Amino acid sequence: MEVKKKTLNECQSGSDQRSTPNTQSGNGFTLIELLVVIAIIAVLLGLVFPVFQGVQERAKKVQAKNDLTQIVTAVNAFYTEYGRYPIDSSVTTDSAATYGTGGTSSKAVFDELRGITANLNTRKIVFISPAEDPSQISPKGKIGSDGQFHDPWTSACVIRIDADYNNQISPNPYGNNNGAGADPVRQGVIAWSLGKDTKIGNNGDQKFTSSDDVISWQ
Q: How many angstroms separate the CA atoms of 110 and 158, rounded?
């Protein structure tokens, strides 16, 4: 009898050992199941990523618009305070009074607006106080080591000022009725950002319609 019990116990133990792998495999994932899950995640990421990029671009455009509005407001406030714009008196045409990407460096203008120099801003009034990062030449949305203010895509924001004081800006950087209004623009100062492609208009065609540019006067 004792021998039989021992044999039964051994058989039972062997049966338990054999059933263990089947039990574990029932609780896990097969290779095919894992591949299917990975494929589904990849598809979802492919759908979500473009949407996320679009949201980011819209946020950058909103930021750029706010920055340009502040720059224009600061220049106009300077004019109200001193009866002139923060540019050298030797500059007499609006085209020459274009500062930033594609024009003269805007450092001198921002130095006056920030109260850093007192050549024109004799009372050193701070008309604008943007963030700055002197460790970079063109930081996003900040004053760089070059003294210019850069848009969220790192290009220096462009400013055009009414240098001949006739209450209009000529030429309109986008031409006449190309989506950015008539030429000339009936304002004393305008500012614009070249957007993600860093070129004016649609890849440099100077047409504002359907471009990724941001302008202050619309």
A: 12
Nearest CA among 151, 216, 136, 155 for reference residue 180 = 216
Residue 23 has pLDDT above 50, yes or no: no
Backbone angles phi, psi at 63, to 5 degrees: -65, -45
pTM listed for this prediction: 0.78
Beta strands at 98-99 and 214-215: parallel, antiparallel or unpaired: unpaired
161 and 188 Cβ atoms separated by less than 8 Å: yes
What is the number of alpha carbons within 13 Å of residue 165 lying toward its C-beta? 9
In 63-188 the beta strands, taken as DSSP E runs, fall at: 98-99, 158-161
Per-domain residue ranges of the chain: 34-215
Q: What is the pLDDT of residue 38?
A: 87
pLDDT of 30-51, one tens digit each?
A: 888 888 888 888 888 777 767 6
Edge-to-edge strand list for the sheet holding 158-161: 98-99, 158-161, 189-193, 214-215
For residue 155, report the phi and psi dihedrals to the nearest 5 degrees.
-75, 145
DSSP 189: E
